[in-house]
Specification:
Layout (H helix, E strand, L loop, with lengths): L1 H19 L3 E2 L6 E10 L6 E4 L4 H4 L3 E4 L14 E5 L3 E2 L10 E4 L4 E2 L2 E5 L3 E6 L5 E9 L2 E10 L3 E6 L7 E6 L6 E7 L4 E3 L5 E7 L2 E9 L3 E9 L4 E3 L2 E4 L2
Parallel strand pairs: 1-6, 2-20, 2-21, 7-10, 9-15
Antiparallel strand pairs: 2-17, 3-4, 5-16, 5-18, 7-8, 10-13, 11-12, 11-14, 14-15, 18-19
Amino acid sequence: MRKYLCLFGLILLTVSSSQAQEYVMAPVEHPGALHGQIVLNGTPPAPLQLLITKDAEICGEGYRTRTEYDVLATGQLRGVVVYLEGVSEGKAWEEATLGESINQQVCDFQPNVQVIQRGFVIDIINSDSTLHNIHGYELIGRSRRSIFNISQPEMGAIPQAINPVRGNQVSLECDSHDFMQGWIFVTDTPYATTVDENGQFSIGDIPPGSYRISTWHPKLGSLTQDVIIINEESSEVNFEYHIE
């Protein structure tokens, strides 16, 4: 019995220690940077056509087009998160581009994909004169867990902390309009961003050292590369997703 109690205590200590390791803001000497682009090789499925069954005067009539693979004619892929792993200390959060709100407008989540600091309180806004019920689900592998469920019968903003327990990925849905879909990537450091309109990214003020850089796309998943950040240099890192 004592053996199992000791083992249980060791597990608790390990979990507590891992949870206690938080990102530390500190001056970065001779910082480096990363830049690059995300491309998709292959032909993506056609956009979904989802029937609008209510609030046509606000949401529009007919069908809502949902583009799950937003690819430019030149192959660059949009709607992708890029983040650096293994950074324990570095630039201040204020230097990062982080989401501050989720806006439900014309029955659409805006922005569709965004990066938000873990535990950060954002405004969930209803800009439509109809009921929206935003439902956030933490994605854990193929499973998901409800982390907030907010009914907004009137226009306005409601504060909400974004704090999944086990992962980084959050799916947004509206229980009143089943064609609405959005995504959040929750970050533990400021070294995370979404690609721009050209499918390109840049991350700066990185402490020199060895790291892992990863991407996340809601439908295509993750890609990873090892990188070395060199003093006061910007390195190029490109990612290529493949689809048949």
